[in-house]
Amino acid sequence: MMDTLFSKIIARQIPADIVYEDELCLAFRDINPQAPVHILIIPKNPIPKVIDATEADKDLLGHLLIVAGKIAKNEGHEEAFRLVINNGENAGQSVFHLHVHILAGRNFNWPPG
Ligand code: 5GP
Asked: How far apart, in whole angstroms, are the C-alpha atoms of residue 74 and residue 58?
């Protein structure tokens, strides 16, 4: 697949405020935060959208959620945080490198907008 903006962040070609990294994923603060804490977790091996994931990705996708919880806890928000994955333009996806948004530090409405 084409290099995305996020692949460039992984390669350190674009700067980012990185909060977590391991062999499978990278997490960094969103440039346009929608909450006091807004962090994106991305797999290092890019998948464009959730719909493109296969059985072979199940451990990786599970890992992203486990890491999301650890990051929320590290940020002091283990009691309340929201995870969002947008799939497709009409659902709000703008970067086609699968990412989990971690949002915390304010109250969230349901249903989401
Ligand atoms: P999406 O809309 O695809 O679900 O989320 C993409 C997110 O990436 C948006 O929240 C947007 O603010 C964030 N973003 C876009 N460009 C950059 C960038 O260069 N650096 C960082 N840290 N975040 C970015």
From this structure: 25
